[in-house]
Amino acid sequence: MEREAMPYDVVIVGAGPAGLSAAIRLKQLNAELSVMVLEKGSEVGAHILSGALFETRALDELLPDWQTSGAPVQTPVSEDQVYLYRSQSKAVRLPAFAVPAPMHNTGNYVISLGSLCRWLGEQAEALGVEIFPGFAATELLYNDDASVKGVATGDLGRDKKGEPKDSFQPGLELHAKYTLFAEGARGQLGKELIARYDLANGATAQHYGIGIKELWQIDPAKHQPGLVAHGAGWPLSEHGATGGSFLYHLEDNQVAVGLIADLNYANPYLSPFEEFQRFKSQLEISKYLEGGKRLCYGARAITKGGLNSLPKQTFPGGLLLGCDAGTLNFAKIKGIHTAMKSGMLAAETVNAALQAGDEGRADLLAYDDAFKASWLYTELHLARNFGPALHKYGTFMGGAFNWIQQNLFAGRMFFTLKDETSDHQQLQPAANFQPIEYARPDCILSFDRLSSVFISNTAHEEEQPVHLQLLDSSKAISVNFNEYASPEQRYCPAGVYEIVEEAAGPRLQINAANCVHCKTCDIKDPTQNIRWVAPEGGGGPNYPNM
Questions:
Q1: Which contacts (CB < 8 Å, 24+ apart) does range 152-156 have?
Q2: Which residues pair with 506 in a beta bridge?
Q3: Angle (deg, nearest 10), helices 17-29 and 336-355
Q4: Please, what's the b/e burial string for 371-395 (b: 16 or more CB within 10 A of its CB; e: otherwise)?
C-alpha cells in the first residue's frame, strides 16, 4: 500500500524542549513557514522525564513573558545541599565553598519537565505549529543526492510477525526542506544519521547514564518547597560504580527522588534499579519519604559526554538538536536550557537559509558558526573536563579536580581530558565478580520492577512486532549469558529481559510490553547486539508530570 506524503518547510522529530523551542522560534521568525512536530508519545510530555532543575536563561530569550503567561515554573530553589554518602546511615554534607561552582542552584527552579513541555506545546500551537502526538518517526527518507528528504512514521496494525492486521494503516511520509532531530538521548534516527554521515568523526566516544526517578507525596510537615539535595557515593560506590543522586522538593507536598548510574560500570551483576531502591533507605533521604506515597516511576538514559563527545550537528538536509546530539552540561547536571538553546540556534540558521532563497537539502554549516558564537558553546567548553575527570579519577579525586578547575580556574584549563572508551566496552566478564545479593523490596521505600512499571502507566499494543531487536539472536546465550551472566536482566529498569530455563537450555525472553523507552539496553549491551526501535506511536510510558 502506497504511503501518503505531506510536504512541509520544516519537520521536527520530538516534542521535547529542543524540538518545541525550535518550532516556536521558527514561527516567531517567519509565521508563513509550515512547521510540523512529530511526537511518539500519546501526548506532548508523555515520554518526558527529567529531575528537574531548570535554569531559565533560554526560556528568557525564547518567551520573555513566560512568568505572566502561565509557565509551570513556580518553585524557586530555596536551599542547596550536597552530600557525600558513606553508607546507609552516614553522610557528610559539604559546605557551600567545597561544592564546584556550576552545581550551585541559586536562581534556578524545581520543575516538572513534562509539564513545561506541555506548556511549550501550547505556545507552539498558538503560533501555528502542527503537532502530531502518537506518531513515531521510524524511517529516514533520502533524496537522490543523499540529503535527508524527511521521515516516515511507523505502520500501525501489524502483528508480531510483521503481517498486516485488519486494522492496518500504512505510515505517513513527511517531506521537508529541512528536518530537525530532537529525539532525546540515543535517538533511533539520530544514531543512524551519526553513522551514515560519520558525524562522530573526531569526537570522543559518547557517554551515558541511566536516570531512575520516582515522584512521591510526602508528609506536609516534612516538605520544604525548593529544597534541593544532590549526592554521590553510597550505594554505587560499594560496587565500584559512579553516579549521583537527587531529592527535589516541588510544590503540593511532592518530592522527586532519583539516582543516576554512570553506564561505564564494570560489574555485570550491578543493577541500577536495585541500587536506587537501596538509595532510598539512606537516612538523609528516608527521613522525607517515610510515611509518604509513591506516585509515579520512570527511567531514561542521559547523554552526558559533553563537548568532547559532541558529533557534527549538521548534515545535508537537517540538524541534530539537544540530547540527540549531547548538549547537556554535566558540570551543572542540567540539559534543559542547553537543549532549548540548540533548538533556537537551529531555527535561526534554518530560517536565515530559507529567507535567502535556499530550497533545502544543504549542509547548514552556518549553524556551527552560530553555535560557537553562543553562550551554549561557552558553557560546554568550560565544562568539557568535568565528566572525564570523574571517569578517570573517580568520585572523590575527580570531584577534587573538578572543584579546582571550576572554582579556581572557572573551567579555563589549558588542557582537555578525554575518555575514549565506550560505556559498553567497560563491562567485564562475570567470572571477575561475585553475584550481588539484593534484598527483597519492603513495599514501603523499596519496590519491584513490575509494580514500578505499572505506575509509569506504560502500555503497548501487544500484537505488534517486538521493538527490541537482536541483531544476532544466538549471542543472547553464547555471549551475554555465558560470559556476562545476562546483564540485560539487571541494567534494564523495567523487567524487559528475562532468562527462562527450559529443558533445551536457557532462553532469553523479551517482555517488550514493559519497556519504558529508556534506551539503556541499546547503550550498555556488551556486544551492541540489541537495537532499540520505536514501537507503534502512542506506546510506552504515560508520565503525568515527570
A1: 152/3, 153/38, 153/537, 154/534, 154/535, 154/536, 154/537, 156/536, 156/537
A2: 501
A3: 30
A4: beebebbebbbbbbbbbbbbbeeeb
Residue with cell 531555527: 347
Q: How far is CA 141 from CA 7, 147, 193, 318, 486, in A?
A: 13, 9, 11, 12, 36
What single-letter amino acid sits at 448? D
Q: How many CA atoms lie within 13 A of 73 on its CB side?
A: 24
Q: Torsion angle of alpha carbons 234, 235, 237, 241, nearest 10°?
A: -140
DSSP 536: S
Question: Which pTM was predicted?
Answer: 0.96
Confirm if 523 and 186 have CB atoms less than 8 A apart: yes
Residue range 40-57, pLDDT digits in tens: 999 999 999 998 999 999
When the pLDDT of each residue in the chain is averaged and rounded to a whole number, the result is 96
User: How would DSSP label each residue in 174-231?
Assistant: EEEEEEEE---TT-HHHHHHHHHTTTTTTSPPP-EEEEEEEEEE--GGG--TTEEEEE
Task: Give the per-residue pLDDT at 403.
Answer: 79
* Residue 335: all three cell numbers together: 540539559
**C-alpha cell at position 57:** 536563561
354 is written with which cell numbers?
530559507
Identify the CA nearest to 393 among candidates 381, 402, 405. Answer: 402
The answer to whether 16 and 117 have CB atoms below 8 angstroms apart is: yes
Q: What is the pLDDT of residue 269?
A: 98
Query: Distance (Å, rounded) from C-alpha 470 to C-alpha 206?
Result: 22
For residues 24-54, one letter each, b for 16 or more C-beta atoms within 10 angstroms of the residue's C-beta and e for the rest, the string is: bbbbbbeeebbbbbbbbbbbbbbbbbbbbbb
Helices (H), 375-512: 375-382, 386-403, 449-454, 475, 482-484, 488-491
Nearest CA to 199 out of 310, 363, 311 is that of 311
Mean local confidence (pLDDT), 403-430 = 89
- DSSP states of 469-503 as a string? EESSTTHIIIIIIHHH--THHHH-TT--EEEEEET
**8 Å CB contact between 387 and 381:** no
